[in-house]
Amino acid sequence: MNDLPRLLITMGDVAGIGPEIIARAWPELTKMCRPIVVGSRFWLERALELVDSRAVARTVTHTDQASASAGEIPCLEGSEQDLRQVPVGKVTAEGGQAAYDFLCAAIDRTRKGAADGIVTAPLHKEGLRAAGLSYPGHTEILAERTGTRQFAMLLYCDGLAVAHVTLHMALRDVFRHLTQDAVAEKIRLLDDMMGRLLDRQPRLGVAALNPHASDGGLFGDEEETIIAPAVRATRAEGAEVSGPWPSDTLFVRARRGEFDGIVAMYHDQGHIALKLLGGTRAVNISAGLPIVRTSVAHGTAYDIAGRGIADATGLIEAAGVAARLARRSAPE
Q1: pLDDT by residue (tens digit) across 191-201?
Q2: How many CA atoms lie within 13 A of 185 on its CB side?
Q3: How much is the pTM?
Q4: Whose CA is closest to 55, among 27, 13, 29?
Q5: Can you list the residues of the chain whose pLDDT is less than 70?
């Protein structure tokens, strides 16, 4: 058991399904890692009752006090917010602030060596805003808190990953954020992360921005002026990368085994295809950080929160990927 990596499981927005998927997934989590919840014991106990679990929550103040088992869940109180009156399935400033606090507490402890990685349950972007926090999501908080300037959010499932050049922004803003350097940066980050996951040189394909990869300039010139130069530059550095390819065929080719990773130009270009392929098994991975972090690839699901029916598959998959990365990041 002591050979398993220690992972901090952040609760996310307590008004969503985070607490209950942690409670439901717990027995499986203890098989792959030494998990510790960073969140609210009050909400954890509610979730254990909700999913009819016999496990018992126990408050700890240090990770070295935690000895997780299928029947006992160590919980670090990660926020000073009073969460007892937070309504299920509703945006609140308290829930948003606490989700931020849980994450920051996990980041700080992991950076100090008290844990080997972080697995996050979902937070709500409107909750962050209600708390006066101007972050679009987990990834940006992680990057700021760790002082990381080059980072990417990856979706991963069944040996295939997608990195996104632009992420949480309006579509009208995508065009001014697409540059040769930005595309090349994401190719490098994806190449590194997939190399760690696969333990070999990954084969990468880069998606075009425009339909049919612009059909020789008929539908734009971003492929010729931005994407293709980035592909050539990173290929010269040693990456096994090609493109730009029309995205409607690129994902089909990847599914057939031609590519291990895809660089998408914007959020939905990558998310829709990967989630269709992976379903609840999709995992969110942060690339470029000095720490290991994975997450579920779904949201807070306010509409079903508190009903005890949330599927914990994504959390189990995320913990499995984090454990694999943590083991490969550990010193020999």
Answers
A1: 999 999 999 99
A2: 18
A3: 0.93
A4: 27
A5: 1-2, 65-66, 68, 330-332
